[in-house]
Design brief:
Layout lengths: L16 E7 L9 E8 L8 E3 L5 H7 L4 E4 L2 E14 L3 E8 L4 H12 L4 E14 L2 E15 L9 E2 L4 H17 L1
Parallel strand pairs: 3-8, 4-8
Antiparallel strand pairs: 1-7, 2-6, 2-9, 4-5, 5-6, 7-8
Length: 182
């Protein structure tokens, strides 16, 4: 399953694997660090789904360390590690690293830096949902993975540029040393 959102049109809304897309805005560092939002609360995506605050809470308590960082939802192509996944008032905030020692990780970093790749997507199973007018409101989600993708679904979720922690430490050391001469 690559790049499609499966919508269930039954009264029971049987849980199945689904994906949601979110565009990103990223200039990654040489070390491949990325951060931003994989999903935003309260905003309908292009299929009309709305993620409710708290929808990821149970998954994050139970298994946030096992949420995978994939290329285009392909389970055979992990490309990184999510160091932090948490809900805040805005949505699902993620911080991670592309594994640039892998050829696909290097390719992803190159595409991100060039602006050729512009999407994030969550792979999940809907546990509970209800109708909010014409929209489906996702109230409990089992999060399986977060992928870099070509075609995003959610309009406003974004990755933001992040700095290289090694470069930041070096800059702090240089400022500290420079202050000794001031």
């Amino acid at each position: 399953m690559r790049g499609f959102c499966i919508l269930l049109e039954s009264s029971k809304m049987t849980p199945t694997y689904e994906t949601k897309f979110a565009p990103l805005d990223l200039t990654t560092t040489a070390s491949g660090h990325v951060e931003g939002y994989a999903a935003l609360f309260g905003e309908p995506d292009r299929s009309g789904d709305i993620v409710a605050p708290g929808a990821f809470a149970e998954t994050l308590r139970a298994r946030s360390a096992s949420v995978k960082f994939l290329w285009q939802h392909d389970p055979a192509q992990p490309i990184g590690i999510w160091d932090s996944i948490e809900e805040d008032a805005r949505g699902l905030r993620v911080k991670g690293r592309l594994l640039t020692a892998l050829s696909r990780g290097r390719e992803a970093a190159t595409l991100l830096n060039a602006g050729a790749l512009d999407g994030l997507s969550i792979g999940f199973r809907t546990i509970t949902a209800d109708r909010a007018g014409p929209n489906r409101r996702l109230t409990k989600i089992e999060l399986w993975e977060i992928s870099l993708v070509t075609f995003p679904m959610a309009e406003h979720a974004r990755l933001t540029p992040t700095s290289n922690p090694d470069a930041k430490a070096l800059a702090d050391a240089i400022r500290s040393a420079a202050s000794a001469f001031a």
